[in-house]
Amino acid sequence: MKEFEVYSSLRVPKNSKIIMRLDGRSFHSLARDLELVKPYDENFYRVISEVCRDLFEEFSPVFIYTFSDEISLLFDKMPFDGRIEKLNSVIASFTASSFVMHYNVQFKKPPAFDSRIIPINGSDVLKYFRWRQDECWRNCVNSHGISYLKSKYSNTEANDIINGMNLSDINELLFKNGINLNDIETYKKRGIGIYRKNKKIVGFNKKENKNQTSYRSYIYQDWELPIFSEKFFNGFGD
Ligand SMILES: Nc1nc2c(ncn2[C@@H]2O[C@H](COP(=O)(O)OP(=O)(O)OP(=O)(O)O)[C@@H](O)[C@H]2O)c(=O)[nH]1
Ligand SMILES: [Mg+2]
Predict the structure, then answer these.
(1) Which of 29, 101, 107, 227 has a Cα-to-Cα distance from 236 of 20 to 30 A?
(2) Whole-prediction pTM value?
(3) 27 touches ligand 1 (CB under 6 Å)
(4) How many domains would you assign to the chain?
(5) 225 in a domain, yes or no?
(6) Is 187 near ligand 1, meaning CB less than 6 Å away?
């Protein structure tokens, strides 16, 4: 019967970097059910960043980027020998389980994440993460805009007003009303990155009777990301 499992041998291309993007399923309903703070719920962000740490420890990507309910993992070596069914199913279910474990509340419905696989190389890696970081910024402006408008107008009116505005209109409206998006926390504007950093360790070498410096890597959650650049991505998986 094994021959009926026609997708099980599908693999990602060898010698290619791979990005996997996970996205929370119907998280607008989950946000309503859990009464998440609008526009940004700090506890939700704390949970998602812990989920990213679990993903990093378990599947060893070289970089993870997250904002809102989405998570992108950059791999240079694929787990499960690159088998697409395994990657999509195991990593998406692991993400949902980790999310539930870190949230520790009663959910109305079991949370789920969809997942997709993107083979990508060279300068397109930076282009991809810039694209997601731009989306994070758009999301930040829009969600602050809609929150402000809903504090002044009915929900329908607020939605109608924001639909006729572009990003700079919204930014200007917020600024005129005392909300300067330059002053808000960096993670809301640029997202959160998870990657390895080196820690300097100075120990005493008894044999040589002198201090010795070594480096140990640890998983770092970066809530103060820069705008992505070539320099930032140098060293991830090269
Ligand atoms: N209140 C609140 N909601 C959030 C926060 N972060 C994410 N969300 C919700 O998560 C949604 C994510 O958007 P999408 O992924 O486009 O929408 P979705 O409902 O998850 O739908 P699908 O992904 O297509 O299944 C947002 O629209 C918000 O409703 C937060 O910090 N606070
Ligand atoms: Mg979603």
Answers:
(1) 101
(2) 0.94
(3) yes
(4) 1
(5) no
(6) no
